[in-house]
Amino acid sequence: MVSIPPLSVQNASVTRNGKRLLGPVDLEIMANGLTIILGPNGAGKSTLLRLMHGLEKPSGGRVRFAAPRAEAYAQQAFVFQTPVMLRRTVLGNLTYPLTLHGTKRANAEKQALIWLNSIGLAGHEHQLASALSGGERQKLALARALIRAPQLLFLDEPCANLDGASTRDIERLILEARNTGTRILMATHDLGQARRLATDVLFLNKGRITESASAESFFNSPKTPEAQAFLKGDLVL
Amino acid sequence: MLEIWQGIQAAFWLIVTFDADLYEIAARSLFVTCSAVAIAALVGLPLGAWLAVSRYRFRRFVIAMLNALMGLPPVVVGLVVYLMLSRSGPFGVMGLLFTPWAMIIAQVIILTPLIASIAHQSIRDLWAEYHDLLISLNTTRSQRIKTLLWDSRRALLTAALAGFGRGIGEVGAIMIVGGNIDHVTRVMTTAIALETSKGDFALAIGLGFVLIGLAIAVNLALHVLSGTEVRDRW
């Protein structure tokens, strides 16, 4: 298997209807670690994730992977802020990415049941995914993303609107994935979560990366006035 | 009102006495329409899905045309198919005119745009919901189409039933290409038209009731078999 990282974003920007949503952004993502993308609402966190994952086309610049593009995208996964559930059972949602890429149904179901056990949804396999609670759906979406052991995982505010218990479960899964070698990029504006999970931080404001640092350095001595204000809980304008 | 009452009585007796002619034309009606719906669904459902997931230059125009074709006048379709299948037509050598196959061909032409258009509308909405996920999962176009068809199967059943409803009640095209020949191409609708023209309104209405009953029975059977409104609540 070819390694995807380093992933480099070179002078990339995203413009929609004449309005620049992101960029220009220059960025290099190396293997290993968990990068938290912080910033106020509308800073371009989701757009940056979508750009790197290929859901958004750059208006300028480019995104490059170490692996060929097709292989690179096959080794990635994305979890959306609002989980998208296929109109299938819980088991059907989990087996989908496996059967899509050639795993036999029986094997896919075996793997899916192991995952269901680990996310606390054992016994729900024949229930419709739409009938799950918000937290359960997000756990299922995360398990669906992780079931093919992606090298690169993008998480777009996966714990937004979730209660403490669901957030704890999701964070456990994220940390397990990081520990097994999945490179994770996650957008959030939950500072507590960022402190708990980050190995390094990208701070975005008005579509630009204003600060990029290790987690320790960022949280202890932020360099830019915007990051300082954000960490203090002040409004970042 | 008397004719309607007599019609109900006629329908009742035709059914309970196992009238051979009635069962023969009812079976032929079902054969022609079910075959046409099956072929139209095989073409129309993937076409609707393909139109939903594809982006190309004249997409809007093609979709507008497809919607417009839902209103194809059956008589015109019948006339065109007649000309194509008649001895002097390009397919005359196949000898299909005045056979149930000609009726199926005419119905497929009428039903395909209807099924494709309804399928396109349901699949387009599902595609909007699934778009980012399916792209994120690195699916090919054919995998997207298969997924959308499978996950919207209940809505597509409605599209097929709409096609069945239009087909089973269709008379103009199949009258022209089938010729309403007794024991060969006579179906429920053409039989009703014939009895009406003969002035036997009671029998015509009786056949009409049987036709309505048949349509309802097929719809109910499909809903029960597919578990719609029972198992799933999408």
Give a short synopsis of this structure.
Chain A is built from nine helices and nine strands. Chain A has 237 residues and is an alpha/beta fold.
Verbal overview:
The complex is a heterodimer of chains A (237) and B (234). Chain A has a domain at 7-85 and 151-160 and 181-232: 3-Layer(aba) Sandwich (Rossmann fold). Helices cover 38% and strands 24% of the residues of chain A. Chain A is built from 9 helices and 9 strands. Chain A has helices at residues 45-53, 69-74, 90-100, 105-118, 134-146, 164-179, 191-197, 215-220, 225-232; strands spanning 7-16, 19-29, 34-38, 60-64, 76-79, 152-156, 183-187, 200-205, 208-214. A 6-stranded mixed β-sheet of chain A has the order 5-6-7-3-8-9, with helices on both faces. A 3-stranded antiparallel β-sheet of chain A has the order 2-1-4, with helices on one face. In chain A, strand 6, helix 6 and strand 7 (183-187) form a beta-alpha-beta unit. The longest helix of chain A is centred in the C-terminal third of the chain and has 16 residues, at 164-179. The mean pLDDT of chain A is 91. The mean pLDDT of chain B is 90. Chain B is globular, with a radius of gyration of 20 Å. Chain B contains 10 helices and no strands. Chain B has helices at 2-16, 20-53, 59-69, 74-85, 100-136, 141-151, 153-168, 172-178, 188-198, 201-226. Chain B starts with a helix and ends in an 8-residue tail after the last helix. In chain B, 77% of the residues lie in helices and 0% in strands. Chain B is mainly α. In chain B, helix 1 packs across helix 10 (201-226), helix 2 (20-53) runs parallel beside helix 5 (100-136) and helix 7 (153-168) packs antiparallel against helix 10 (201-226). The A-B interface holds A 53-55, 73-74, 76-78, 80, 84, 86-88, 96-97, 100, 128, 130 and B 126, 129-130, 132-133, 135-139, 143, 147, 151-152, 232-234.
